[in-house]
Amino acid sequence: MLTMAQDSKVSWNAKAGLNLSNWTGADVQGNNAKLGFKVGVGMEYAFNNIWSLQPSLFLSTKGTKYSESGLKVTVNQMYLDLPVNIQARVHIEGETNLIFSAGPYIAYGIGGKISSNLSSNDANTFGKDGLDEFDAGVGFGVGLEFGKVLVGLDGQVGSINLKDVEGAAKNINFSVTLGYKF
Questions:
Q1: Which terminus has fewer CB within 10 Å in the chain: N or C?
Q2: Where are the beta strands (DSSP E) in 94-133?
Q3: Given the DSSP bridges, would you call strands 31-32 and 96-111 parallel, antiparallel or unpaired?
Q4: How far is Cα 74 from Cα 23, in angstroms, rounded to an integer?
Q5: Under DSSP, is residue 8 helix (H, G, I), strand (E, B) or coil?
Q6: Strands in 51-95 per DSSP E
Q7: What is the pLDDT along the chain (182 residues), one digit of tens a residue?
């Protein structure tokens, strides 16, 4: 690993950003997007000047809001999120690159609450009576690399039902991130 780092094939990064998430699916109607955050670290292994592999680990909040006839429900989901992206780097000028990325992600729900304006008791988001902890899907993104500074727009589309029932909701998430490459 040390030899690869000396050859400049391996780099590390830290990123933070805002999420805009919601649920999608046949049974989802009237839900509104929820603002959240993501923060994490990643490693990039460059195969050559264009192609690289970038696994990352994020703490990411997702969820949804629902409002109808005086009922307001907010679902807060906190995940450990592991995207593994293949990246294509297009050199623009100097140290500026345009980066396209895509790949699978897996996530595990570690916390969160479901709150309602009709109840003073919040329910746990995950667990026996809540949502399933496991999530997975496909991610995609586009970003700019200004030397060591990274700016990106990312998306994730879940492929796993949040509950083990037919037609249940799936996560959908969009992020704006700012990062630094080491």
A1: N
A2: 96-111, 113-116, 119-124
A3: unpaired
A4: 12
A5: coil
A6: 51-68, 71-93
A7: 444 444 579 999 999 999 999 999 877 777 899 999 999 999 999 999 999 999 999 999 999 999 888 889 999 999 999 999 999 999 999 999 999 999 999 999 999 999 999 888 889 999 888 899 999 999 999 999 999 999 999 999 999 999 887 778 999 999 999 999 99
